[in-house]
Amino acid sequence: MHAPAPAAVEELAPAVRLNPVIAGREVDSRDRAELTGVDGQVVAEIGLAPRLLAQAAVHELRAHAGAGAPGAEVFAAAGELFATASLDGESPQEYQRRVALATGSPRGTVERATAGIRSALARIEELNAAELPAPFAEGAFARHWVPRGRVLAVIVPNNHPEPNVTWVRALSLGYSVLLRPGSKDPFTPRRLTAALLKAGLPAHRLAFLPGGHDLGDHLLDQADLGIVYGGPDAAARYGNRRDILVRGPGRSKALVDADSAAALPASLTSWIADDGGVRCNNISAVLTSGDVSALADALAERLAAPAPLPVTSAHALLPATTRANAEALGPYLAGLAAQGTDHSSARYPQGPLTALDDTSVVMRPLVISVDDPHHPLVGTELPFPFVVVAPWDETHGTAPLRNSLVVSLTGRHTHLAEQLLHEPSVRKVTTGDVRPWLSRPELPHDGSLAGFLLEPKALIRPA
Amino acid sequence: MTELLPHAPLVPLDTDADAHLRRTLRWHFGAATGSPFWLRIAPTLDFDPVRDIQGLSDLHRFPDVSDQLRTVAVEDLIPAGHTGAPFEVFESGGTLGAPKRVVDSVSRGLNVDWVSTVLDAHGFPATGNWLHVGPTGPHVVGRTIRHLAQRRGGVAFTVDFDPRWVKRLLGSGRTDLAGEYRAYLLDQVELIVQSQDIKVLFITPPVLEALVGRRDLYERLAAGLEGIVWAGTSISAESLRQIEETFFPRARIAAIYGNTLMGIAPQRPRLDGDMHPAVFRPFFPQSVVELVDGHGAPVAYGERGQVRVHLLSRDMFLPNVLERDTAIRVRPAPGDSVDGLADIAPLPSQGGARVIEGVY
Predict the structure, then answer these.
(1) How far apart are CA A324 and CA B160, in angstroms?
(2) Do A382 and B236 touch (CB under 8 A)?
(3) Nearest CA in chain A to B354
C-alpha cells in the first residue's frame, strides 16, 4: 500500500549543475555524475574534481595561504546571505528542497539547520574564543594562538548541514580550506562557498571539490591538517593520525531509571527522532534500570505516530531513502531486528520501510530491545530513528556508556555525570530533561576545534 | 622516418588482412616452420587451420588457448622455421594468478616502429631522451620504450617499477605501503631529472598524479618536457584536460593502449568531431581487436564491448583471447578501415548496493 501523496504545491525545478570552484573560479568539469534524489529523480548534475584538478587547486591555494584571517563581519554577512539570499540563482527554499530530496532528511531539518548555520556564522569569534584560554599579554611578553598549518582539507558529511560550520570556522581562524563535500549534500558547502565569496572572503582561500573517497585521501595527504566526518570506517582509518581530526560516529546514549522512563516518554521520543534521527547526537541507545520491554513498547508506540510523508513536505518528520537503497536496507534491518526483540515492525502495515507514490521509501522508527547492555547492537547508529533498549544496573557501571558523543542521564542516575565526564570516549554529558544537542556558544560540541587548528607561540618584544 | 614501414601512420602493414592471416597460418601450422605448441594443438581441432581458415571472420573457430601460456615451455612457442634475431620472452601482468608468457623476436618491433610514426603525427619531438616510469623486467613495455627512444635518437632512462607488487599491495588493502612505493619511485625520478635532459616521459596516470603533487619535481620536469606518453590505467576526461591544459601545456600528450598478448594500439591524433579525447588504433592486421558483447558478437559503433584480440604475427599466433578490458567501438578515421577503441575500462565486477552503518 502506498501512502497518499500530498497535494502538489511546488513546481518542479530542473536539475542544477554543481561544478568545482577553485579560488572563486568555477571549473566546468568534464567528469560528471548525476545526484539522484530519494524519489529517483535527478536533483543535480555534479562536475567532479579528479585528483589532478584537485592538485591544481592545492597549488593555487598554497601559493596564497597563510595571509591572516578575514574579519568576523565577512562570516556574519555570509551567514545572512546563506539563509536569505538568492545565490547562483538558488533561493533558500530551493536549496532546502534539494538537500531534503538528495539526502532524504525531512525538509524541516534543513530549515532549522539553515537557521543554525546563520546563527553560528554571526557569532563566529565567540565560538572560537570559547575554545581558547584567555589572552595573555604582560609588558614585553605575549602569547599568541596561531594556526599550526596553512592549508586544511575537510571531508564534509551528508547527514546534516550544520557540521559545515566547522570549515567556515577554520577559515575564520586563518586557514585556507580544501573542501570535499559529501556525495549527497554538495548543496550546503556549495551555497556556503557562494555566500562567503559574495561576502568578501578572499577567493584563493577556498576550493570546493566534489569527488569520491580517493579524492578525500589525496586532499588529506596534500594538506597540512585534515578534518574528516565519517562512520566507523573513517574512524578506524584516520583515528590515530595526529594531523587529522576525526568526527566519527555519534552513538549517543541515554540512561534512564524507571521513574524517568515513565515521566519523560515525550522527551525521550524527541531525543531519538527529532530532525528525523539523522543527527549524530540523536539518541540511538537507551539503557534503563527499569522494565526494558515496557519502555521499548512505550517508545515504539510514540515513535510510530508520525505519518510517512515525502521529505519535501513541510510536515515531514521522518527521513527517506531511494527504492534501490531500501531493497538492500530491508534485509539488513531484518537481520538487526532478529538479534533482539522488535517492538516496532508489527505496528507498520507495510513494515518499517514504507514506499510512497513518488518511489521514495520512508524509514519509520525502529525500536529493538536486547537483554544485555554490552550487546553488539548497543551502539549501532543508523540515519533514521533507530534505538536499542537494553537493561542496566549499578553493577554495570559506566562501561556500557562509553564511546558516546553525548550521554543523557536522568533520574537517580545523574550522579554518574562527573564520572562519565572523565571517560575519554564520552564527549558530552547532559542530566535531566534536556535535549542532547542543547548547548551555548561557550560550550564544546566535541572537543576543541581551535585547539586542533591553533597552537600557542610566544612573542617577546623589548619593553 | 622508418624505412621498414613507409606507410602513412594510420595504415600500417598491408591492408589485405585475410591474405596476411593465411600467410600467418601457413607459417605457424607448417610442418617445417610451425611451433611445437601449435603443431601439438592442430590435430585436436575439428578443422584444418590452413585449409579452412580463409578470413578473419573464421578466427572464432579457434579455441582460446591463452591459459596454456601460463605453463608451456617457452621454446615450444618458437616457430621452428625462425632464423635470425634471437627470441625474448615476456610476461603478462599476472593480475589473476600465474602470468601468461609470450615470445617475440622482431614482430613487436614493427609495431613499435609504426607507433613512432604515429608519435610524429602527434608532433612529438623527433629527438631527445626519454624517461620510462613504468614496468621493465618481464614486461614488454620496458623494451618498447627503450626501442622508441633509440629509434628517435635518444636514450631511455628507466626506474624499476614492479606492477605486480603494487597490485598485491592494493589488493590486500595496504594503500599506505603502495603510496610509499610510489614515493620511492618518484625519489628515483627526482635523481634523474636533477641532472639529465628529459624530453619525453612515459608514465601511468596514478604516478603522474603523484608526480605533479611534488611541486619542485613537477616544475623542473615540465620546464623541459615536450612529450608525455601515458598508459596502464584509464584516465578521466577532466584529468586528461588538466594534464594537457594546466600542468603540461607545452608538451604533446598521447596515450598507448597495449597489453602483452596484443601489442600496442597508440592513440591516433584527434579529429574534428571526435566524441572521445583518446581514440586508440591497433596495429592491424598484426593485431586484430574486436569489441564483443556477452555472446561474442561485435557491438555497434558507440557501444561498449569486451576486448577480444587476435595476434597474427610471424613470431607468434594467438587467436581469440578475451581480455578483461572493455572499450567503446569507434568508426575508422577517414581514409582508414580499422575501428578505433575509446574509453578503455576494466570489466565491471558484480556487486549490489551496500548498507553502510552510521549517520554520515
Answers:
(1) 46
(2) no
(3) A328
Task: Please indicate if any CB of chain A lies within 8 Å of the CB of B353.
Answer: yes
Contact list, A325 vs chain B (CB under 8 Å):
353, 355
Phi, psi of B39 (to 5 degrees): -65, -25
* CA atoms of A406 and A428, how far apart (whole Å): 5
- Closest listed residue to residue B15, CA positions, set B316, B299, B286: B286
- Which residues from chain B sit within 8 angstroms of residue A59, using beta carbons? 215
DSSP per-residue letters across B161-197 = --HHHHHHHHHTT-HHHHHHHHHHHHHHHHHHHHHS-
- Which element (helix H / strand E) includes A415? none
Q: Once rounded to an integer, what is the mean pLDDT over residues A199-214?
A: 96
DSSP letter assigned to residue B74:
G
Place of cell 560516529: A249
- Residue A104 to chain B, least CA–CA distance (Å): 12
What pTM did the predictor assign?
Answer: 0.87
> What is the reported pLDDT for B359?
46
Choose between A382 and A239: higher pLDDT: A382
pLDDT tier at A15 (50, 70, 90 boundaries)? confident
Name B54's Cβ contacts closer than 8 Å, sequence gap at least 6: B18, B22
Cell 546571505, residue? A81
Q: How far is CA A320 from CA A100, A105, A209, A335, B89, in A?
A: 9, 7, 26, 20, 58
Q: What is the 3-state secondary structure (H, E, C) of A98-122?
A: HHHHHHCCCHHHHHHHHHHHHHHHH
Residue B115 grid coordinates: 607507433
**B237 near A CB under 8 A:** yes
In this structure, which amino acid lies at residue B259? N
Q: Between helices B175-195 and B205-213, what is the axis angle to 10°?
A: 70
Q: State residue A298's pLDDT score.
A: 96
Residues in chain A whose Cβ is within 8 Å of chain B: 29-31, 47-53, 55-56, 58-59, 157-160, 182, 217-218, 221-222, 229-234, 249-250, 278-280, 282, 324-325, 327-329, 332, 380-383
Quote the strand ranges of chain B, DSSP E.
88-91, 101-104, 130-133, 156-158, 200-203, 227-230, 252-259, 263-266, 279-280, 287-292, 304-312, 317-330, 340-346
Grid cell of A169 as nine digits: 570556522
pLDDT computed for residue B11 by the predictor: 52
β-pairing, A407-409 vs A21-22, is unpaired
Alpha-helix residue ranges (DSSP H) falling in B94-161: 107-122, 140-151
Record: contact A332-B355, CB cut-off 8 A: yes
R_g over Cα of chain A: 23
From chain B, the residues in CB contact with A157 under 8 A are 359-360
d(CA A402, CA A424): 8
Instruction: Give dist(CA B261, CA B318) in Å, integer.
Output: 8
How far apart (Å, rounded) are the C-alpha atoms in residues B28 and B26?
6
* Residue with more model confidence, A213 or A243: A243
Place of cell 558483447: B293
Nearest CA distance, A60 vs chain B (angstrom): 11
Contacting residues for B121 by C-beta, under 8 A, at least 6 apart: B9, B10, B268, B269
Residues of A in contact with B351 (CB under 8 A): none
Residue with cell 601545456: B249
pLDDT at A12 over 60: no
Which ipTM value was assigned to this complex? 0.82
Ranges of residues in chain B whose predicted pLDDT is under 50: 1-10, 351-354, 356-360
Over residues A450-455, the mean pLDDT reads 95
